[in-house]
Amino acid sequence: MVSYRRILLKLSGEALSSSNQNIDSEMLKKVVSIVQSALDLGVEIAIVMGGGNLYRGASLSAEGMDKITGDHIGMLATVMNALALSDAFERNKIPSMVMSGFPIGGGVCEPFNHSKAKNELANGKVVIFSAGTGSPCFTTDTAAALRAIEIGADIVFKATKVDGIYSSDPMQDPSAIKYDSLTFDSAIEQNIKVMDTAAFALCRENNIKICVFSMLEDNYSLANIIKGHAIGTTVSQTGD
Ligand code: UDP
Question: Which domain, by its residues, includes 194?
Answer without folding.
Answer: 6-236
